[in-house]
Structure to design on (419 residues):
């Protein structure tokens, strides 16, 4: 991709009404556009990151038996009345709308109800179970405060998987697998080290749940962390003594954190209310045992921006970066540099390296500033000085490390680094 043709421009200042660091950086670097508080559009750079994050999530969900579906946003009031979740007193963040006829509809904030009802068409006997449908879909929540950029949207993406199992035993086997898959997702997107599992009693309708909390000052939750066990306890559920329930250490550290994922054992709360049953091996009718597994790709990107950026801008982990290499051309008078840039650009592209080529007519200083702000893992400089000596300067965005590389070795160097 040539930067002169890229739809978005970088900007020196973020919109005045933007209070969060993640949105400020992502807006300035041209990844997202703010429509209004808690509502953000994705531009080409941002969408590339989002697609890569979603690919990692899909990879992990498919590996544990997930099957991707796509449910609707518009929700039928009657269905939600059956589980007692239509009322605004019970669920305080519904967005609701009306048909011309006056019939009320909701905009989905989660999808247990419609999916449980849908599954009645597909689950009859024990042979049909277990099933693990999931989707990556836009959710709507009328959040009270939307001051955390894309970490708390009123319209945002959620990956929500639901498990349908024969019994508790089958359920908990999958639940444990999902936990590992989640940690693997957080590792791959680059926030594994900062992300802790916090177990909690799962609120009103489930016996247990686990949250995945990433440590960041931008988070709205407070957790108590046992660094040795990689376990955290949510401040909300902490009872009495602050003590790690694994190693019994009482020297837990208080930290701000954001919930990047949350998994629940739902038991038969929804299958009972909506009558989702199956016939077991003896022909007895039983309620399906369910679980739900939420994760926010857009919140994840906000969290990466918050935790991995530095004073100069974004710093993308390799697996989710919008491009692998930022080729920055420092042009000369007789267009010699351009020839070399084009040659290197096509060579890298041909060999599967994703390159953003800064071919704009700007001063070197400005280009470097933009490049720091955008945060692509490797910056390759093509200038008269470097190629006269036969060597190209390659700078790693995360560490600042500089290597001088021969043209023939550029591709190998990039590939090795990105591995
Ligand atoms: P919070 O306590 O932060 O509001 P929640 O408990 O309401 O989160 P869930 O209902 O469990 O969140 O949603 C599943 C996942 O969806 C969360 O772990 C998070 O990653 C994401 N998510 C929830 N609300 C938002 C939001 N407003 N904006 C972006 N992502 C969100
Ligand atoms: Mg919430």
């Amino acid at each position: 991709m040539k930067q002169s043709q890229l739809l978005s421009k970088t900007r020196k200042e973020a919109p005045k009404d933007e209070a969060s660091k993640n949105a400020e950086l992502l807006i300035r670097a041209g990844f997202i556009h703010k429509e209004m508080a808690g509502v953000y559009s994705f531009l080409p750079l941002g969408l590339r990151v989002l697609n890569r994050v979603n690919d990692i999530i899909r990879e992990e969900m498919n590996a544990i038996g997930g099957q991707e579906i796509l449910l609707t946003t518009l929700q039928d009031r009657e269905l939600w009345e059956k589980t007692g979740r239509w009322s605004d007193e019970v669920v305080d963040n519904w967005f609701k709308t009306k048909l011309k006829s006056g019939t009320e509809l909701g905009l989905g904030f989660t999808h247990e109800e419609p999916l449980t009802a849908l599954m009645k068409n597909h689950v009859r006997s024990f042979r049909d179970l277990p099933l693990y449908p999931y989707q990556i879909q836009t959710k709507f929540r009328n959040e009270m405060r939307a001051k955390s950029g894309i970490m708390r949207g009123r319209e945002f993406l959620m990956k929500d998987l639901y498990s349908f199992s024969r019994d508790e035993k089958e359920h908990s086997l999958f639940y444990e697998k999902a936990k590992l898959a989640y940690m693997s997702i957080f590792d791959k997107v680059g926030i594994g080290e900062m992300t802790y599992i916090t177990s909690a009693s799962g609120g009103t309708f489930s016996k247990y749940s686990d949250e995945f909390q990433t440590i960041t000052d931008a988070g709205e939750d407070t957790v108590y962390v046992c660094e040795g066990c990689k376990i955290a306890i949510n401040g909300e559920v902490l009872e009495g003594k602050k003590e790690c329930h694994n190693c019994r250490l009482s020297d837990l550290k208080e930290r701000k954190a954001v919930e990047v994922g949350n998994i629940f054992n739902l038991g038969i709360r929804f299958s009972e209310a909506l009558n989702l049953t199956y016939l077991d091996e003896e022909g007895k009718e039983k309620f399906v045992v369910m679980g739900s597994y939420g994760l926010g790709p857009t919140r994840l990107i906000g969290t990466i921006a918050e935790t991995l950026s530095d004073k100069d801008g974004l710093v993308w982990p390799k697996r989710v970066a919008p491009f692998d290499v930022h080729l920055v051309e420092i042009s000369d008078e007789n267009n010699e540099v351009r020839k070399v840039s084009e040659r290197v650009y096509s060579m890298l592209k041909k060999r599967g390296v994703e390159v953003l080529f800064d071919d704009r007519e700007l001063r070197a200083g400005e280009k470097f500033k933009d490049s720091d702000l955008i945060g692509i893992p490797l910056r390759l400089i093509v200038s008269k000085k470097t190629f006269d000596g036969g060597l190209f300067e390659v700078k790693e965005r995360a560490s600042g490390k500089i290597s001088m590389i021969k043209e023939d070795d550029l591709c190998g160097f990039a590939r090795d680094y990105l591995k």
